[in-house]
Amino acid sequence: MLESKEIYADLGLLATQFATIEQLVHDILVKIIVRNGHEIDDMFGITIVKDQTLGKRLGLLEELNHFHNDYSNPISGFIASVKPKIKIRNYFIHGVWTITEDSIMVENKKIKYKKLDNGRRWEYGGAKFVKPNELKKLNSELGEIILKATRILEDIENHGFEP
Fold this sequence. Notes:
This protein has helices spanning 4-34, 39-49, 54-64, 72-82, 86-94, 132-159, and strands at residues 96-99, 104-107, 111-116, 119-124, 127-130. By secondary structure, it is an alpha+beta fold. The chain has one domain. β3 and β4 (119-124) form a beta hairpin.
């Protein structure tokens, strides 16, 4: 059983790591858009990805990654490791947390409209239950994702896109 201080510390780490991943996705996108360009190109690259959600940025990164570059495989691996984390990210970042000694309930208070053949229905966003050890495991996985992305960016910085 973990103390609540440790759970809050893990939740803080989780939020920080998700923010770091979002920034890394942004930085990789700008590098792919700009390639080996100049400052004005950086501004253009940043403008394209400004104010997009993580899911949209990943989709754009996936599309741009289809064009030939030496980093296609590592970037594809990075995308594949981030995509399954988006839903849980949204729960933790936008949800309401209820913390007990043995679990964390994260509720999505967003109500969604669902169109049916015979009418419509409003649905509650639902809830996820996460145990403290699962939170630690998620933090560890996010740390690995951050390392992958950091290596990709370092390689691009050091070697560019030219063979």
